[in-house]
Design brief:
Order of helices and strands of chain A: HHEHHEHHHEHEH
Strand content of chain A: 5-15%
Largest interface: A-B, 82 and 82 residues
Radius of gyration of chain A: 19 Å
Shape of chain A: globular
Structural class of chain A: alpha+beta
Number of strands of chain A: 4
Number of domains of chain A: 1
Oligomer: homodimer
CATH class of chain A: Alpha Beta
Distance between the termini of chain A: 40 Å
CATH superfamily of chain A: NADH Oxidase
Chain lengths: ~210, ~210
Amino acid sequence: MEYNEVIHKRRAINFFDPERDIDTQTLNKIIEDAALTPSSFNLQPWNLMVLRGKEEKEKLKALAWDQPKVAEAPVVLIVLADRNGWQEGHPTVEKNWEEMVATGAMKPEQRDWFLGAAKSLYNWNSEADLAFAAKNTGFFGMSLMYAATAYGLESHPMDGFDHEGVRKAFNIPDNYWIPLLLAVGHRKPDLELHPPKWRKTVDEIVVSF
Amino acid sequence: MEYNEVIHKRRAINFFDPERDIDTQTLNKIIEDAALTPSSFNLQPWNLMVLRGKEEKEKLKALAWDQPKVAEAPVVLIVLADRNGWQEGHPTVEKNWEEMVATGAMKPEQRDWFLGAAKSLYNWNSEADLAFAAKNTGFFGMSLMYAATAYGLESHPMDGFDHEGVRKAFNIPDNYWIPLLLAVGHRKPDLELHPPKWRKTVDEIVVSF
């Protein structure tokens, strides 16, 4: 699909067809495409929980303002942002380090520099790790939405949910923030979409101080 | 350009051609495309500072680990995430409210519900407003990168910079977090790219607890 078509076709859909599933192969392709997303130091501090079962979607729906789409979409992703994704010993950090050394991007003696740089950027105040996790996972979430559109599917990013309730109900460890839930599926048949919502103009986006 | 080409062509480029500028029309198209990005309650809590002048780019470079690309790219965007972007009285919040009432999406008597919902989601703890701002601005930042690629340009998202130093040097108000700087321009001629860095597999991304 043309990029220009993707960005205009992508809409936050409220009503999914509960009769149409997404096969695992398609879902995996969406995730693989989104995995190309860039991230700080290539640390990729994102994970996904994939909810497909009726019971688990109903459990999530009850914690997400009872929005019907949480149960109706065939797949709901709990998108996770890993606040620890910059720390020494974290599997992704260590894999990154090994790859950088293997490709010659870094020399073994630069390990302290690498770990120190990540620490100085993502641990300089008590909120920096959250900003790191949420920003990068925001990149990834946007890529997931475009990928879903490119595969002919619809999506809806949600943050109308009880953050701590979802954490507890799904045993999500404390290192994760939950920036969004993402419903993915097919549009309900004959659904008529409202016109796109207004967007800020370039003049409203660009600021100077 | 095909979506599939965009996601593979998008690479974080370290060396830009300082001789090739980007015209304002193209830059505005990139921003307009990215403005289609979805956001929580359509609150669009993002802004951009556009740096083009040699002096201001050098000032930023000195605060960004002296990375040559900050000066070499014709355009460097300071991407801003507005932590206040959910509050009553904020221009975007009020414009959203007016539009929702005008289109019939909300009734005037639902104002308290709307404001209360935003407050309950983005003010439930002292970090929620940062997560809100960084996540949504992450969506927007990713869209900016894809749009740049689609217009034949290169980009590089950076967070190797002194956050508070940049804030002070550019008079950026406290309500903004700075999730990234984004260099945009043309690739330096004859630049050879390294192979793409490794990415997590689907199995490494999908988790369950």
